[in-house]
Write a structure and sequence with these properties.
Number of domains: 2
Shape: flat
Number of helices: 5
Radius of gyration: 17 Å
Oligomer: single chain
Length: 103
């Protein structure tokens, strides 16, 4: 969520939260659009992962590593999940071990 928020995907971030009055989220879209314009300089779209801070890139890298490991361990997920993660941050990839199933 952090990398999406920093890249300007505010509608996506807000849609993932279980708000007390979730039915009002549609009414909040004009405010989110205005906030996105103020913070990113864009009305629509997003900055893209290549144009955010290194901490946001690190969060995205970590998400990719976890998604990839889960897809391998569970033999499920879309094509994106089974592709080797692409590194965006300056930090080395986190190490993650396979899930060992109990028998």
């Amino acid at each position: 969520m952090y990398s999406r928020m920093e890249s300007g995907q505010l509608q996506w971030v807000f849609s993932m939260i279980s708000w007390r009055h979730h039915e009002n989220l549609k009414n909040a879209e004009p405010l989110l659009n205005e906030l996105q314009q103020l913070l990113t300089g864009m009305q629509k779209g997003n900055l893209g992962i290549g144009n955010v801070s290194n901490p946001a890139k690190m969060a995205y890298d970590l998400h990719q590593i976890i998604r990839y490991r889960l897809a391998l361990d569970n033999k499920q997920g879309g094509n994106d999940s089974l592709n080797s993660p692409m590194q965006w941050s300056d930090e080395p990839f986190a190490k993650i071990t396979p899930i060992i199933s109990e028998k």
